[in-house]
């Protein structure tokens, strides 16, 4: 017996003080024929510990040979230690049959899935050697086992439920010394034909393993449909198998050890003896029952670090074995996966009802105690008392007066139907002496009320649950920190750059912590160019993420200085070696010039990019000089220039997308080429197509960065360039040229602002130029891009101009009116650029 209290009374036998108690073994076998549940009764009966039984083939542990007729008793015993039972055909019952029917299929047929109905039988076997606490049976003494087997159908792995009992112990409890004095057979009966059948049906889940209300209800319905397990005695008596598993003693018979203790002077009156030490045995059994319950709960909860799943496991563990209703409430900081709550809760602490489990009809309490409700508990309630003291609160029976008083503290909820007349136990969920929440446990009036032993059991259950919840909370908190850090380090890439459209994807790895060192970036460069970057820091975790942030910042800085691709990777390699010996990364850096229609690329140990040609839809891996990873040092980097046409697509990614453990990376690269060439309605759809194509097998552990750019180019008639003399009179000419070009493009509303800004920038170039030429370029894309180039390498600064100063306000005007602006130097030349938003038609 694994479930109910040892102190319970069997239905219909309230006055039978002579009822003995038989341990009932409960075993569940999965679809593979392996033991998935092994109760404490199975340990006492077969002598095999739970940890040794679960996962083993059931045929190795159970009496699969079944009952055998008399004519086979002379044969040799099976090799596995099992022996035939010395009995006739009536030693195994057939559903709906009588003891005189022929033998039905044995337990081996049930284990093999060969039957669709319940079977029962009897067998003898030699158990393995027992340890001192497994039972009282001597080593080598054969077991006489009664068993019932129920095939299970429906979802889930469970396929067979087996109940078993010790027939020898049953004879002792019945008061027989000779096994031939009474014939006993396991069988089945309609539960409605048994005394107190409604109570038997209600208590049946307590026989079953702790599987949760949903699965337990499904198994109960199948057991009731196939037949309730009973024992049939030759005196035409039929006893149902119950959670407390008491069997009546034969009238006038007493066990031999009890008879030896009777006093001679008691002959004057009939005597019915109780076995010596029965009361102590019952108390010990009750304690052991609760310890076994806690052990089972501990093995069930905490199977996942997901906070929501852990909450459901903790709440469901108490129903129906320990309580009929369980509700878990947690503080907001715990539920959000934030840091550890500060200080004890008080009247202002908001609690969330995060899960409710009960064995009433579905939806019975949805309106009374809805899941997800958040509120502060009133002070004059037992819930508040448990929350602030951190101690269990036990109310054996909630009287109507007390229930009315408690319910009156809640304005929006009438709790009287839930708590009045019921037994209430509230236990705190604590970790590191801080209350994280509490659990409300309720028993119905027809069930024994909670007592002090239950309070101790509930407190221990809550203590274990609190530790599990805190572990899940810490994991959720660390995961949130990692995700926040990762998100903060990934750029917000604009979908449209000058002459190209961009789409990106980032997928975190499945390793614990999930944070990695993959990154991508797009950087706006002078001349309407765009830098495309993908990198992968070797390793995972916070160190890799921090290194990724440093390298990404360095790339952005050097790109803004118009550092050529090969030189940029050399500088990045030097930086990584200065930062530390463990700084290793791969990087692919590309610069797209939409006016010239070319891409310049440099590679530092990274996987090559894929170029998809718009003309024929073909795709190819670009053959680039592959340098060593960043941080190795001493290896030169080379740049390659590739001509592209409008509409071509360039795909850059990290190795997490194409590498799969146990597969050649060449297969992944080939799949990348094939999926990249697949037509798509948009850039986002194209990225999703690649992700789906290369992530079909699952199990991806590395993070993935994907960057795709459609290289649209800029038509020649959308670019205008002039060369100006470094003379003050050229400023007026620059304004005139810009006005004429904008009017030719049909952008009259942009003329006034453009003339003012061009005048300020060209004036600065003429005033500070060291050569005799100044360049002016206007590029039309989604915005107007203006560039002014001169021979002075010093970058301009915005200065604070006083009321009487004649200069120093030009760049302030540019900064105020332009959408964006900037300056960069290359060699002995500098370029000042600004961007102006327009709304005219193209």
From TrEMBL:
Species of the source: Streptomyces misionensis
Basic and acidic residues composition-biased segments: 1-10, 79-93
Residue numbers spanned by region Disordered: 1-20, 65-138
InterPro entries per record: Bact_Sigma-Reg, GAF, GAF-like_dom_sf, HATPase_C_sf, HATPase_dom, PAS, PAS-like_dom_sf, PAS_fold
Keyword Protein transport: no
CDD domains: HATPase_RsbW-like, PAS
Secretion signal, residue range per the UniProt entry: none
An individual GO BP term: regulation of DNA-templated transcription
Residue stretches making up the PAS domain: 26-56
Designated name of the protein: SpoIIE family protein phosphatase
A GO molecular-function descriptor: phosphatase activity
Recorded superkingdom: Bacteria
Keywords from the named record: Hydrolase
Record-linked SUPFAM superfamilies: ATPase domain of HSP90 chaperone/DNA topoisomerase II/histidine kinase (SSF55874), GAF domain-like (SSF55781), PP2C-like (SSF81606), PYP-like sensor domain (PAS domain) (SSF55785)
